[in-house]
Structure formats: structure tokens, C-alpha cells
Write a structure and sequence with these properties.
The chain is mainly α. It is about 80% helix and about 0% strand.
Length: about 150
């Protein structure tokens, strides 16, 4: 081999080494850019997932607060129902007492038999019906005799 060929061979080898070096250098740079882009995408995805998780936690906390509020409202309604029941029982008691006083004052009511407690719980219905016993029982012919006794007719 002569010196011209040897010089050309060395130049070709050097050029090949430079080209290979440039490919490796730019390949690594390109890979770093792509890795950075992928990392940014993963960070954005993680941030979106984190935001979704926070939103879900907020909705869960809101649902728990709504459930607690519903429990409080239910407790208030139960208390109100108990109070109204107690008020109704008080009114019923006063009504029954007034009916007893009315029967005691009415000279036309037959008090020979004391009233028997109603085991069926219909006392409230009967307390609302404050008609005297003789008006309910009627006379011998089934008619109301209250007017006849008061007027003497």
C-alpha cells in the first residue's frame, strides 16, 4: 500500500469515527428530550390524578357531612314528633277531663254505672264525641229525648 492509499484509509476511518460519534451524541440528546417529554406527561397525569383524588375526597367529605346533617335533622324531627305526641296526649287528657266534668255537671246523665276504661284504646275517639249518654242511647222509641226533658214537653 502506498502512502496515498494509507492516508485515504486513515481519513475514511476518522470520518466514520466522527459520524459514529455525532450519531451517538445526537441520539443521546434526542433520547434525553424524549425522556423529558415522557416525564412531563407523567407529571401532568399524576397531577390530574391527584386533583381527581382530592375532588373525590371532597365529595366524600361532603357526603359524610350531608349524612351527619340528615342524622341531625332526623333527630330534630324525632324530638318534634315526641313533643307533638306529648302535646296531643295532654290535649286528650284535658278533653277527657272536660268530658268527665260535663257529665258530672249534667243532671240528665245517669251516673249509676261508673264509666269503664276502653281496652281497645278508643277513648280518644269517644272523647271527641262529647254528646251526653242519653242523646246517644235515645228514648224507648230510639229518638232523642233530650229536648223533651228540658222543655218538659
Amino acid at each position: 500500500m502506498d502512502s496515498g492509499q494509507l492516508a485515504w484509509t486513515i481519513i475514511v476511518i476518522i470520518v466514520l469515527l466522527v459520524v459514529i460519534g455525532a450519531v451517538i451524541f445526537f441520539g443521546r440528546r434526542w433520547k434525553k428530550t424524549k425522556d423529558h417529554e415522557r416525564a412531563d406527561n407523567l407529571r401532568q397525569s399524576a397531577a390530574a390524578d391527584e386533583l381527581g383524588a382530592r375532588e373525590s375526597e371532597a365529595k366524600a367529605a361532603r357526603a359524610a357531612a350531608d349524612a351527619q346533617q340528615a342524622d341531625v335533622d332526623a333527630a330534630h324531627l324525632r324530638d318534634e314528633a315526641h313533643q307533638r305526641q306529648a302535646d296531643a296526649e295532654s290535649v286528650r287528657s284535658r278533653s277527657e277531663e272536660q268530658a268527665r266534668k260535663a257529665e258530672a255537671l249534667d243532671p240528665l246523665v245517669d251516673d249509676s254505672e261508673p264509666p269503664q276504661p276502653d281496652p281497645s284504646g278508643r277513648e280518644a275517639e269517644e272523647a271527641a264525641d262529647i254528646r251526653p249518654r242519653h242523646a246517644v242511647d235515645g228514648g224507648a222509641d230510639g229518638k232523642d229525648t233530650r229536648g223533651d226533658e228540658r222543655t218538659g214537653i
